[in-house]
Write a structure and sequence with these properties.
The chain is of the alpha+beta class. 39% of the residues lie in helices and 20% in strands.
Amino acid sequence: MLRNYAIGIDIGTTSTKVVLFDEKGAAVAHHSKNYPLLSEAPGAAEQKPDEIFEAVNESLRETVRKSGDLADRISFISFSTAMHSLIAVDSEGTPLTNSITWADIRSEPYVAPFKSDFSETALELYKRTGVPLHPMTPLFKLQWLKNEHPDIFQRAEKFVGIKDYILFRWFGEWHTDQASAAATGLWNMHTKKWDEEALKLADVTPEKLPSLQPTTYYWGELSEVLAKKSGMNSSVKVVIGATDGPLSNLGVGAISPGDIAVTIGTSGAIRTTSATPILDTDGRTFCYPLTENHWVSGGPVNNGGISFQWIHDTLQKEDDSAAYEKLSRDAEQIQPGAEGLIFLPYLTGERAPLWDAQAKASFIGLTLRHNHNHMVRAVLEGCILNLFSVYSLIKSHVGNREVKIFATGGFTNSLLWKQILADVFQTNVSIPEHTESSCLGAVLLGRYAIGETDTLEEAPVETKQYEEITPNPDHQAIYEELFHLYQSLSDTMQTQYKSIHDFQNKHKKESGK
């Protein structure tokens, strides 16, 4: 019997998704399991590692069950994971902390002085690691842990990520893939080893971290126990895989020069793929490996769908999808540019391009003629203009190639939002039929890892069907003008965010007395 089916597992921030794909990349069975994001202290964003471990096991078991007779035709499992998580574990592999996620900003006090007082050192660190300096990175989480919880820091045998922990529970070995390692801010992209200077800053040694493996590393078979629990044959291979952003590029087919992947869910990201690393002269974009010959550069933004949710909750109140559709339709009545109303979408601080956890959102240009429809349109436009500002940092590396945009995420449910994306970028936007691009990317990487394909470009996916959104050329001039205004206002406002942040904190505390 031909074993040509494969499973992709994506360990996400709010859920784990498991999808079974056939040899053409079509999804034939899937299961997902949600888990909470815990915020028991200001700035905290944690998860319980064992809850995620159980979510992975349950979702895998249920996907295999739903696959029926196809279970015997599964060749391998391959992993995707959210970036920047950190767990301290003891000598037995038992967690001493929750999984501290990318959204946790408690290490911000350790980032700010490093960026301001050691700017040259900070830029050199970025040039070696490819990771902008931000509280999301385990480098600064380790500094925070050492200073705020020294007892845990000293007791820890190792510091690992959530995927590392899952695979340790499966195989009893501490390994991490180079893409996950890159996201820690501790990995040197040039030497492909842990960076000595970064380790000194974090006060850890290589022995305190998992061993480094390429994203194509795999285990030759499951344990008998895991095979029995999951309902699979023990000869199923397990590919270590990579991280969700680079794998999403692969999953939507954006791995050739000029291909751009845009994702807008709760947050968002824009990414492009190149054969060699691409770095920003001012350290404002990331660069992570997918394989040795595929590097994904771009930037994540904090504020995507969460901005639409905020304006919905503020103006609409009804808690159903129809309310979002109504808001979007109402905003269509407003001309591009929202009659000069501009929204800087920094509701939850911002990563790219500002890398400022203290950034604040703002409406600029409000007049008596503006109503809630203008505000909704300005919010949708502001999120896209923010992504375009990140794109402006990487577009020079695209050169004169034809640009293709592949877009995924919940925002694709809004026709207006998709049209704004096409109009601002002035290029066609392709919407993949499938939605689990990171799971599919994991499987495509897995096929390359175990030798089923010779290159990633030969990924055997014949089911890619796209919705095409065409830009309106009549909107090009106004969005070019609006972007320059947006960029100028963003630069101006950034000088005030710390003062606003300090004022808000001061009076929040006083009002709570």
